[in-house]
Structure formats: structure tokens, C-alpha cells
Amino acid sequence: MPDTVELRDIELMRRLSKGDESAFLEFYRRHQGGVYRYALHMAGRPEAAADVVQETFLSLIRQSGKFDEEKGAPAAFLYGIARNHLRKLW
User: Fold this and answer.
1) Distance between terminal CA atoms of the chain?
2) What whole-number distance in Å separates Cα of residue 31 and Cα of residue 12?
3) Entry pTM
4) How many CA atoms lie within 13 A of 67 on its CB side?
5) CA nearest to 50, candidates 67, 68, 37
6) What is the 3-state secondary structure (H, E, C) of 35-57?
């Protein structure tokens, strides 16, 4: 059974895929710090990490409808997007 944080993220993703801006804002606030730290660790440069965060969340807006809760957690989906942007950076 998913924990309450994951359940909340799933609900946010459902709302986000319907265009709910407040859901995006809450999801962003919950995860942007972690995505930034991940990108900084992988890229090694603060400016590159900031770019990856921006591109990741822009992609999330465009791809939110592709999220399938049967395949994994919203955070895993988000970090997969970040990983793909890091790959482009390299």
C-alpha cells in the first residue's frame, strides 16, 4: 500500500493532468528541492542544475497525462524526466 505522501502525489498528478495550476504549484514545491539536488549532484554545476529543474517541470506539465500510477510513483516519473534532461545535457 502506498504511503500517504505518495497517495497525495498521485492525487496531485491526477489534478495536474486536468490542468489544475494549484496542483502543479504544490507538486513543484514538494519536489523541486530534491530534483535540484539530484541534478546538481549529476551535473556538478548549479546553473546546469537550475536549467534541468526548469526543463523537468516544464516537461511534467506537458507530459502529466502520460503518468500511469500502475507503473510507479509520481516521484519516480518526475525523476525519470529529470534523468532524461540530464542525459541531453551530457
Assistant:
1) 37
2) 12
3) 0.91
4) 28
5) 37
6) HHHHHHHHHCCHHHHHHHHHHHH
